[in-house]
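Deliverable D5.2: sample structural annotation.
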Amino acid sequence: MNPVNNMTKYSLRSWVLVLALAPTILVGILLGSYFTINRFYELEDTLVEQGSNIIEPLSIASEIGLVANDREATKRLLAAAQLNKSTLVKSIAIFDANNQLFVTSHYHKDFEIMRYKEALNTLHKTEIEHVGDSLILRTPIFSTGPSAAPANYDIQTDDGQLLGYISIIINKERALLEQHRAAVAAFIIVLIGVQLNLLFTFRLVKNVTQPITEMVRVVAKIREGKLDARLDGNLIGELDLLKRGINAMAGSLSEYHDEMQQNIDQATSDLRETLEQIEIQNVELDLAKKRALEASRIKSEFLANMSHELRTPLNGVIGFARQLVKTPLHSSQVDYIKTIERSATNLLGIINDILDFSKLEAGKMVLENMPFGLRETIGDTITLISGSAQAKGLELVVDIAPNVPDNVNGDAMRVCQIINNLVGNAIKFTDSGSVMVKIELQSQSEEQVVLRCDVVDTGIGIDESQQDFLFQAFGQADSSISRRFGGTGLGLVITKRLVNQMGGQIGFTSSPEKGSNFWFSLPLGLGQFQIGDSLPLEKLKNKTILFYEPRVLTHAVLSRQLNQWDTKVTHHQHIPSLLTTLNTAEAPYDYVLLSCHGFSDAGQLVSTLNLAKTKTDCLVVLYDCQEQDALTQFIRPNADVVLSLPVSEHQLARNLLYPPMEYDIIAPVTIATPAARQSLTVLAVDDNFANLKLIDTLLSELVTTVIAVNSGDEAVKQAKTRTFDLIFMDIQMPGTDGISATKQIRQGSMNRNTPIIAVTAHAIAEERELILGSGMDGYLPKPIDEAALKDVIHRWITRPKFTHFDLHTLNWDLCLTQANHKADLALDMLRMLLDSLPQTVTTIQTALSQNDHPVMLSTIHKLHGASCYCGVPTTQRLCQEIESALKHETAVEDLEPEILELLDELTKVESAANQVISQLSAEITDDQKNGLL
């Protein structure tokens, strides 16, 4: 216990009394005790001295009577001595040398106590013995002459012959009385001192502690807020100064309190006014927010309606244009129809740009995170726009660094859109020269890579004064560019916002008439599984290749690829050196790669191809020229493989490793024979006559029976009267729209489980979610593409039905979605997960038994990453919960129930995956053979 706390339990009065009285009482007791004890000793010493003065002369005077054995004379001597000191001496006795009583002053009943208990030869001087209230003195009696002693006295001492001893009893009552008187006197003196001290102490308490107590009371009142409390009266010394200080403090506090109260009142008034203003502003902001939300809703509805209204006629234009191309037409009519289709497609691209810009501006662009092959994706994108570069005679080059990983996670469609916008702009604004796409690895971690892509062109460039306006919506470098090159000015701003939303950066450098370099850096996740087939590139090692390409950039990129495979390459960039090598070569080459550029005419090209054909078993022609006649008449008949530039690494390696045995010459274009139709009954619903006619025409080429109706009510009636294999439903229709019609069909008709596909021009993500959440099974956007229509029919008619496991264990539709609707890729992902399960389960069980936190976290993290792409929602959820808990340092043993649940779920996943793989592998193989996938 703290002594300071104990001190605070007692008042100042108590402490003053204790500190004042305690020293006085202690000192009084000590002094009284000292003087009393000292008096006791003095009285005792006086008594002993008086006894000695009596006994010692008697011992000398008794010698004669003891020697002469005269008892009477000796008794008279003793009686006279006792009577002389009767108040002091009780009795006197003499004992002889044999310690026998010789004579006594008068009879004493206890004379035995006067006898000496020890041997007489030890008694050499006066000895004292205290017995009760008496004091016994004994003194030896010695003879003064040698002949005077009796014959029987034989005790000799240094002082002479011992004749006996005299013993006297002294009364101590008088001395004790004096001692008691001394003690009482000392006590009275101490008591008087204490009383005097109390007098002065109470006077001190009255003059000191009472004022201090009053000060404490006043301070307590001040602390309670009673600032008018004051100390009164005259005090002594420093207490008066303290009183004045407390009064002054109370006055100052009172002034400060009054001033503070005024400030508080003023602040309260100001705050009330401010709160009223804030409340008014909040009301205004709430109204503004509601207006903004209403405006956003109206804008979204407008975009949806605009998309529908624009896409609906475009659907008819593009669809019937494609249908018209299938009919017998002469060349000029085919050219007109293709021009109509291109114009409508360009208009559709503009509509898509506007919608993308609106979604980005509203923050409603949703990015996917799917695994994809980087090189294949970029290759497909470049292939789509390479025709524009070929038409202008531009050198289009794709250079991907070898250390760039191919298996990544991200939004492949948006990556393609970024590449397409930047490369498309570079081609559009470049009249001659080259456009180069260069991709490098900027940084890499365990789960993420950051790639940098540069699109470098030799086009018209951008003036420095116009560069600040480049990434603004609906803006271009100057107005003349818009008239010359066309475009809405949305491509770059969409690209910039897409890059920023994906966590990257974008920028550019440009010089007028020298070209531009648009670059962007993009973070992508590292894929855990390989996308696509792996090629045995080691088979190309030490293969001999004769390579001719006159253009510097393409030659450098392809040379690096060939050298990367450890091939032995003979390089040529000029026709004469190429012909010299072909003419002088003795040993054949494994491969000959020839570009179509640099030849003076078709004759030189054909002769060179024929000569090269004699030097190799695999002649590969790299073609990116616009002359289709030359390709058909001269190149294809004389080459083993024709590859369009730019060619991807995977495509080039595949054609080198697996060259075709013989090259089929493409026959002249003829009208295709209609394929066999599937025996299906399909219901088509659309309120627009042109669109209904188009989808009826397209479906009639694919299925045997098509029922076309132009309203939702009619569709519900048809669904109640007959069974359909598939229903294509328009969304926006007067009266009963597509969503309402779908609900009625699902509730009470003969087609409750029939797949219903939404056919609509709605392009907003929220609208798509509403459509899919209303009971419809799929989505087919307008304008309708014939290939997409075939894919939808095939997907839903041949859709597998799994009934032996829960969809939360394995959902094949979710797996397809996560694999970008590529069935073979989804199966590959599922197989890789299935192959890894035994090792994963063993590792988890071992880590659980050993409470190994790092191993458990690493294993669960890998399993979580794999489950994100295989359509296993329950496994994914459990992995996420366990991984999150482990990252928060939760012990492994505390997560045992969740881990055991995960192990049980993995057993279910393994069984379900085996069923899905065994059922779908054969179907996908058959589909590939039939050309359906």
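Annotation notes: Confidence is low (pLDDT under 50) at residues 147-156, 473-486, 662-673, 924-933. The longest strand covers residues 160-171.
The annotation will be released with the project's public dataset once the embargo ends.
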